[in-house]
Amino acid sequence: MFQKLILSVIVLSIIGNAAKENIQSKPNLIEQFEKNIQTNVDSPSEVVRKFYQNLREGKFRQAWMMTNLKPAIEQMTDAELSEFKEDFEIVANKIPETLQITGEIITENSATVTIKVFDEDTNSLEDRVLKLRKEKDSWVILIVDEAAESFVRQEGKNYLYQLKIETHESEAQAMLQRIVKAQAVYALQNSGQFADLKTLVQIGLLPDDILDTKSTGYKYKVVLSSDKKRYYASAEPAIYGKTGKLSFLLECEGINKETKLQSKDNKGKPIKD
Q1: Around 90, how many Cα atoms within 13 Å sit in the side-chain half-sphere?
Q2: In the chain, how long is the greatest CA-to-CA distance?
Q3: What gap in Å lies between CA 169 and CA 236, rounded to an integer?
Q4: Side-chain-facing half-sphere of 227: CA atoms under 13 Å
């Protein structure tokens, strides 16, 4: 989902294990950090803390203006930014009330801040290191890398729209492949017959958000043949030009037969009716 991408952008601005080891190799760093943070309200750590606080409080414009996404955000009207409010709110709800900051390193006009975040894969708290850059008298959180930042400056407010479209289109392809796997499992247990979407969701072979465009940005459909031994699955953008541009069609002629996937900018209409 687009929300998952935004979340990964927020908390996974990682510069790798080398930085993590650098912090862990200095046992007095955290103690020194705790002493300094109390006297320096403009420190990189306080900027990071304020960024997360703004997100939690729903102050999304203020939050993103503290990052190198600023060229995109400052061009957006409140109405345009509100189109992403639902995505941002889902992300904001995952941010803990108390942000655990464990380290800060400043080198001239660059800085790194280490925070603890919950990793769903390992089910534990993990160190994540965020980069910052000094611009005049302010620290800017580097949410995207140099190449992406250049694209942000070039595209301006269109960047978030394009990012959302590309993410939804990529996830639509992945969801169609999940449908293929789910149908294969179902057919093996049901004499080669396939099932409709609701059935696959009800028995836990597909996530229930496939039935709702709110988080996926796409409308999914499965059409079965009369004997239920063939099917095709389609996906079209919920709002053409905003949640996606490509329409997708996946066709399966039977169990153990290769599926065919095609995509086309069909102005939001199905490739096959």
Answers
A1: 13
A2: 73
A3: 9
A4: 7
Residue whose token pair is 């959180």: 141
Give CA angle at 50 (49, 52), nearest 5°.
70
**The sheet that has 231-237: what strands, in order across it?**
218-224, 231-237, 246-252, 260-265
**pLDDT digits 0-9 by tens, 195-252:** 999 999 999 999 999 998 988 899 999 999 999 999 999 999 999 998 999 999 999 9
Pairwise CA distance, residues 71 & 155, whole Å: 9
SS3 percent helix, strand, coil of the chain, rounded to 5, is 45, 25, 35
Write down the architecture of domain 2-156 according to CATH.
Answer: Roll (3.10)
Residue 172 neighbours by CB under 8 Å, 6+ apart: 216, 217, 218, 235, 244, 246, 248
Residue 54 near residue 139, CB atoms below 8 Å: no
Nearest Cα to Cα of residue 263 among 248, 243, 244, 251: 248
Locate tokens 């209409």: which residue? Answer: 269
CA dist., res. 269 & res. 162, Å (int): 20
Which residues is 101 bridged to in the sheet? 115
Q: Where are the domains of the chain?
A: 2-156, 165-265
DSSP 256: T
Contact criterion met (CB below 8 Å) for 5 and 143: no
Return d(Cα 244, Cα 228) in angstroms, integer.
Answer: 30
Helix (H, G, I), strand (E, B) or coil at 123: coil
Query: What pLDDT, in 10s, does the model give residues 110-142?
Result: 999 998 876 666 777 788 899 999 998 899 999
Which helix (H) or strand (E) segment is 236 a member of? strand 231-237
Q: Is the pTM of this model over 0.85?
A: no
φ and ψ of 264, to 5 deg: -160, 140
